[in-house]
Amino acid sequence: xxxxxxxxxxxxxxxxxxxxxxxxxxxxxxxxxxxxxxxxxxxxxxxxxxxxxxxxxxxxxxxxxxxxxxxxxxxxxxxxxxxxxxxxxxxxxxxxxxxxxxxxxxxxxxxxxxxxxxxxxxxxxxxxxxxxxxxxxxxxxxxxxxxxxxxxxxxxxxxxxxxxxxxxxxxxxxxxxxxxxxxxxxxxxxxxxxxxxxxxxxxxxxxxxxxxxxxxxxxxxxxxxxxxxxxxxxxxxxxxxxxxxxxxxxxxxxxxxxxxxxxxxxxxxxxxxxxxxxxxxxxxxxxxxxxxxxxxxxxxxxxxxxxxxx
Length: 310
Ligand SMILES: [Zn+2]
Fold this sequence. Notes:
Blueprint: E1 3-9, E2 13-20, E3 25-32, H1 39-60, E4 68-72, E5 75-77, E6 82-85, E7 92-94, H2 96-103, E8 109-113, H3 114-125, E9 133-138, E10 146-149, E11 152-154, H4 185-188, H5 190-201, H6 208-216, H7 220-244, E12 248-252, H8 260-273, E13 281-284, H9 291-309
Parallel strand pairs: 1-4, 4-8, 9-12, 12-13
Antiparallel strand pairs: 1-2, 2-3, 5-6, 6-7, 9-10, 10-11
Helix pairs in contact: 1-2, 3-9, 5-6, 5-7, 6-7, 7-8
Bound molecules: zinc ion.
Zinc ion (ZN) binds near residues 166, 178 and 180.
């Protein structure tokens, strides 16, 4: 059966699938990146995993994969197929597309940025299905974004488009790793809420999910921490929707798991701030941690349809 390899490389683990033309997941697998052994070992883990997936297809699906899509974190030059930099994996300027192509018998390979690739899947087959223009914002350790425009994700001139986590929402706010102060991700990421709630509750092990639970039980200190995060998030999102005018705003990541505890006040805070802007639908992400892998599959199939029509 005709299929592609989809591979999503995270900091510690990799998720992979063999995906049919109709999007069916024909085989799924997970493996560790082995980052404790250094960047060269991580690259080798990726190449070996891809080769093993190819062999699985030959053995169980009657043919080898016709293309591959790979999503990686950090800075990605998708056009040239280079994994430029990833702080959590330690690599620099890895010619990933070329290396994978060699290992996979010369099939076409697409390389994508993890969040933009996940956003592609959320926009096309997940929470934004049918949305012409959307913004996908996962709230995790940090905050990133994927700008969806008519079925593709805008990567910008240098591969940095969508970095909504580094929009300054509190000019006198906490220092950010990027060198600015008061960036959105220092105030509204899952990590930021964890830090704020650990300090406010006096429990160093308390995290953002605990904060959400305390909000639900009416704890005033938790309500205050939560309100600050939601207010910062609304400020950042309104800046983004003022620029982009999306029809759908898809919010994912760990913090979105709080469900309506997040979405009800967030919708209200965004609505309160907009004046002339049209309100987008604000919805939770639908694909969870499989978004990156499903997006990598879409990248691979897109590559084939482009080649056929070119
Ligand atoms: Zn920043």
